Structures are given as structure tokens and as C-alpha cells.
Amino acid sequence: MSRIGKKPIEIPQGVKVEQKGKTVKATGPLGTLQVDCHPLIDVKVDAGAGRIVVTNPDIADRERRALHGTTRALLNNLVLGVSKGFKRRMQIFGTGYNLKEQGGKLVLQVGYCHPVEMKIPQGVKVDIKVPATRGNDVPASFVLASPDKQQLGQFAAEIRKVRPPEPYKGKGIRYADEVVRRKVGKAFASGA
Questions:
Q1: Collapsing DSSP states into helix, strand and coil, what is residue 42?
Q2: How far apart are CA 44 and CA 20, in angstroms?
Q3: How many CB atoms lie within 10 A of CB 92?
Q4: What whole-number distance in Å separates Cα of residue 103 and Cα of residue 192?
Q5: Quick check: 190 pLDDT over 70?
Q6: What angle do CA 123, 125, 129 make, to 5 degrees?
Q7: C-alpha 179 chain-centroid distance
Q8: Confidence class of residue 192 from pLDDT cuts 50, 70 and 90?
Q9: Backbone angles phi, psi at 171, to 5 degrees
Q10: In a domain, 180, yes or no
Q11: Residue 54: enclosing H or E segment and its boundaries?
Q12: Which runs of consecutive H residues, i.e. helices, occur in the chain?
């Protein structure tokens, strides 16, 4: 039995959750999201008690056990997204690298001969804290925010993929909490 799947999801104040069949829809201060639950898992929205309960009718079935915790996590992210939202902090290291938001696109200058333009998905907000790097000490930094955790993570991964951090100098785009393993460069031996 899934330990995470057994926990009921508390519905916070100001969030309205509705269920139609296997579709759960949540409306809150940050917007409206919905999740289509798997037919093998039972979901009950108890608006009176202010909670969502996810149950697994057959604990012997391996597929149902796998889906139990996943369904509960998706519903929890749904409720958290419309009430608090999700954020992803990112940094760009490298001399001369910069970024700007222009006409619904994120424009990155990260060492290529051309700027890289990425369309910002609907529902994702970009907050640029430091637009350009200052030497190797101060990176360019920005924050992505969205109520949809999956969409936010996908867009952050696509941005990072433009110029992943390299292991020698650490130049590139990375998550703020990411640790880049550095390699030692070539060591020149004194020749005789």
C-alpha cells in the first residue's frame, strides 16, 4: 500500500474542487487546472470535510499500486498550483551571456552567433532578476512561475537544454540549486 497515496489531500481556503467522473477540476486564486485520473484508481472529493481521498480498490494489482501514489501526487500538485503556485529559479553563467523578455518570447544570448528565441508558454511568467552576467562571479538570474508544475518543469528543461552547463568552467544555463561537477583541466608537465 502506498504511504503517500493513503494521505488525504487537504483543500485550502479559497480553492474550489469539482469532480465529474474521473476528471478533477480545481479553481483557485491563481487559475483553473484539471487532471484526468486513471480509471483503475478511485478518487473521492469530499467538499464538506475539505479533502480529497485517493483509494486503491485492489492492492494486489501491481499497476494499481504504481498508480496510487502517482495519482495522489498529481492531485496534490493540482491543489497546490491553484493556491500557491510553483517557482523555478534559474541562472546563466558565462561572460557576455544575457537574456531578455521581448514580445512573449524569451531571448537568450548564450555564446552562439545568433540569439535563441523561445516562446513563453501560456500560464508561465518570467521574472528577470539580473539580465546579464557580470564576469564569472555574478550570474544572470531569472525566476519562472506557473500554477502548472508539469508545464513549468518542461519549459525550464527546454531553456536549460539550449546551453547546458559545461564541466570545465561551469558556463551555461542551470537551475539555481543545481550543483555542477567540475573537472580539472589539462595539467602541463614541465618537459625536459
A1: strand
A2: 10
A3: 27
A4: 61
A5: no
A6: 170
A7: 17
A8: low
A9: -70, 145
A10: no
A11: strand 51-55
A12: 3-6, 62-83, 149-162
d(CA 177, CA 3): 28
* Same-domain status, 41 and 66: yes
C-alpha cell at 48: 464538506
21 is in which domain, residue-wise?
A: 3-83
When pLDDT is cut at 50, 70 and 90, the band that residue 49 belongs to is confident
The whole-angstrom separation of Cα 124 and Cα 153 is 10
Does 186 map to a domain?
A: no
DSSP string of 117-137, one letter each residue: EEEPPTT-EEEEEE-B-BTTT
Question: What angle do helix axes 62-83 and 149-162 make, rounded to 10 degrees?
Answer: 90
- Residues facing residue 183 across a β-bridge: none
Residues of the chain above pLDDT 90, percent: 64
Who's near 58: CB < 8 A, 6+ residues apart? 64
Give the count of beta carbons closer than 10 Å to the beta carbon of residue 29.
12
Amino acid letter at 112?
Y
CATH number, residue 166: 3.90.930.12
Q: Are residues 171 and 130 in the same domain?
A: yes
Which cell goes with 94?
Answer: 558565462
